[in-house]
Amino acid sequence: MIVSASWDGALKVWDAATGAEIRTLTVQTSGISSAAFSPDGHMIVSASWDGALKVWNAAAGFCLATFYADAPLETCAWSPHGIDLVVGSGGGGIYWLSWVE
Question: How far is CA 69 from CA 8, 10, 87, in A?
Fold first, then answer.
């Protein structure tokens, strides 16, 4: 699967083999700057220009948690082991968060 971020505030999940859209998540009122699957494929993280970082259940499409930064977020990524998130803001900040279920 592939996840795409959009300026209209929607995340789209695609089937990598067929190119078919699997699901659309309307997630933010602001554009989404970055999104990524967790290494195990069970979660998606999204970062947006309104400073919101959201973690999603990839299979069901619901939001598990929302964090807010003090500046627009430009990028996000999971660590290879799937526990830590690294987020970069437009204000030059870098955030390191640990995901604990």
Answer: 20, 19, 10
Percent helix, percent strand, percent coil in the chain, to nearest 5 = 0, 55, 45
Convert the pLDDT of each residue in 71-91 to its tens digit.
Answer: 999 999 999 999 999 999 988
The type of residue at 56 is W
Residue extents of the structural domains in the chain: 2-98
Strand partners for 57: 43
- The reply to whether CATH 2.40.128.630 applies to domain 2-98 is yes
Confidence (pTM): 0.89
**pLDDT tens-place string over residues 40-71:** 999 999 999 999 999 999 988 889 999 999 89
Q: Are 44 and 37 in contact (CB under 8 A)?
A: yes
